[in-house]
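Quick one, T. Sequence first:
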Amino acid sequence: MLPFDKFSKTKILVIGDVMLDRYWWGSVGRISPEAPVPVVRLDKTTLAAGGAANVAVNVSGLGAQPVLLGIVGVDSEADALRQILASSRVASSELLGIEGRPTTVKTRVIAHSQQIVRVDHEAEGVIGTETEDRIEARIKSLLLGADAIIVSDYAKGLLTDRILSSTIAVAKKEGKPVLVDPKGKDYRKYAGAALITPNRREAAEACNLSENSSGVVEAAGARLLMELQVDAVLITQGEEGMTLFRRDLAPTHFPAAARKVYDVTGAGDTVIAALATAMGSGSGLDTAIRIANAAAGLAVEQVGTTAVSLDEVMDAMV
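Structure tokens:
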């Protein structure tokens, strides 16, 4: 039985690297005489929540209650992000402003529905001890009222080894599942998590395998499950669907739900938001993945980071 009627009462704590996604939309009519690059005529600019902020927006879109914890700069970009979050019914009260550290901004230039280039403005250094203390204390407090925890790691410096180990330890003690969207090559820092959700490329890199080698998903999934202290591994593969690896069970493959893939930006955010919301509502892992698969299929049919709604997911699963 699908748990949609319980979503509105489900609270999800989202911890991770928040960012602002800026889109410059235009058209290309000629090549620049200054360099062999297209000249984009700018038509409009749009802004969206990115990273962990997009995860929280997706949780809200599914009708659940997100609590977003992260860091931003003390700048106009942080103000813009807070406005976007408010319009999506996501509180920004747990976003900690850090003087001298810019809000992470990813600017994408889109022409004729295709991304031409991306410009990143960010700081990737780890947070200081004082900020780490404040974040850890808030996590311990907020975690008690959550039904599930999402760790959205974009390797921007917030999720230190100390914060990760402390969060997972407290969650396990309280019986709350931790779902991780990982980054980097060393996944041992996520030990104790209920589920990690790397994509094909990330899983291959974490296992020092070639992304394009035959059977890379099966090899990477088996190795990660064997070497890591996590309950399950879900490797997402875009239009090829996703594959679940669990201990003492054969891998389970879930075909993609998308009819047309236009843009995979933010698809991983949609997947983990739907997974956590479903699991926090009491669903088993297989049911949660079916819901996440439907949500991801809707997300990639649109250009840019876009939150899918609960009604859309319910219709897609009929």
